[in-house]
Design goal:
about 5% helix, mainly beta, globular, four-stranded antiparallel sheet
Length: about 350
């Protein structure tokens, strides 16, 4: 498992820390400490912005860096040598937060416009780390605002890898003078060609009420969030092995943690989905309202029960282990900063090791 740490400053130094976490084959026991196997310092010019980030490939052999707004560059590890850069399309505003690596560590996918910020049409971009080629896989020929009733467009969001060569994504279709249609789930090949419709998400009302997704690579299981203000209804829908997505942890209460979900992630064994409550994270609600507003919580996909990762501390960030449902998670307090730390648990329900 690898962890990326960022040091922030005007002449910023980005530190990539590759942490080796050892899981035993017979009992899923976890090592009692993280071993730092390599530290790479990267000189950065200028100030760090919200569009800057480093994204480590699954096999740890390289990372993608978005230091400049119009390109993505790739660096090999551990020698930290720049291998190639890909130039983004003109007049695009790529969202680095949507970058996802293919399981085989060759490609990255992302959207070409930050829809919720710019209100512009978005497509799925593919960047090849071998030669820097940037391909728009879902180009509909439109790049302008999605707010006008005079446009027909397809808004593509949340690229997630089904396998090494297939990307799943959310799509909203807009027709001239028509309300947006419900969210739909599509797949597209890295080789191009037409996108394939997988599922119409019938609970969606076509108002960007589904804008967060995760797909468990190598399977047909996926999770999406639902944030429907008009009804209201908030929560997660989960589809196991291609089945019809079922509501998980749904509520109709305004101000609930379900209303603020802005990220979901499925465990490697498909037994859990963790979700991140943005309001709790940004407003520090776990410290002011109690541990029940811990930003990151997990939901069992069989029992549909949502629970805390730990009742001792609020969890602000987390990541699943490559097997099972072990978690690496971060505890971060704004007031009692001496308690801030990195924890590891071999499975949900078991104590975390600091």
């Amino acid at each position: 498992m690898q962890v990326v740490k960022r040091a922030i400053g005007l002449a910023g130094v980005l530190v990539l820390v590759l942490n080796a976490v050892v899981f035993a084959q017979d009992d899923n026991a976890v090592a009692n400490q993280l071993v730092v196997t390599n530290v790479t310092e990267i000189e950065l010019d200028g100030s760090i912005s919200a569009r800057m980030g480093a994204y480590l490939a699954p096999d740890g052999s390289q990372y993608a860096l978005t230091a400049m707004p119009d390109e993505i560059c790739f660096f090999s590890l551990p020698d930290n040598v720049q291998t190639v850069c890909g130039t983004m399309p003109e007049d695009s505003f790529p969202d680095p937060g949507t970058i996802t690596w293919s399981p085989d560590s060759r490609y990255v996918a992302l959207i070409d416009n930050t829809v919720l910020r710019s209100a512009d049409d978005s497509d799925i971009l593919l960047v090849d780390s071998q030669d820097g080629t940037v391909t728009n896989l879902t180009d509909d020929g439109y790049t302008g605002s999605i707010l006008s009733d005079l446009v027909s467009a397809m808004i593509d969001l949340e690229p997630r890898w089904v396998d090494d060569t297939t990307i799943a994504f959310l799509r909203y279709r807009r027709e001239v003078y028509e309300e947006a249609l419900p969210a739909e789930l599509y797949t597209v090949s890295v080789n191009g060609g037409d996108s394939e419709l997988i599922r119409v998400l019938t609970l969606s009302k076509g108002t960007l009420d589904v804008y967060v997704m995760d797909w468990l690579a190598g399977t047909q299981s996926y999770a999406v969030s639902l944030n429907q203000m008009q009804t209201p209804i908030f929560g997660i829908m989960y589809a196991r092995d291609g089945a019809f997505p079922v509501p998980v942890n749904m509520v109709n209460t305004r101000g609930s943690r379900q209303e603020g979900i802005w990220a979901v992630s499925i465990s490697s064994d498909g037994q859990y989905v963790f979700s991140v409550d943005r309001a709790a994270l940004e407003r520090n609600l776990a410290e002011t309202e109690g541990i029940e507003r811990s930003p990151v919580q997990v939901t069992n996909t069989t029992t549909l029960k949502t629970e805390l990762i730990t009742s001792d501390h609020p969890v602000s960030e987390a990541g699943w282990s490559p097997q099972g449902n072990g978690l690496l998670y971060i505890v971060r307090y704004q007031e009692e900063t001496e308690l801030n730390s990195l924890y590891l648990t071999p499975a949900i329900g078991k104590p975390g090791t600091q």
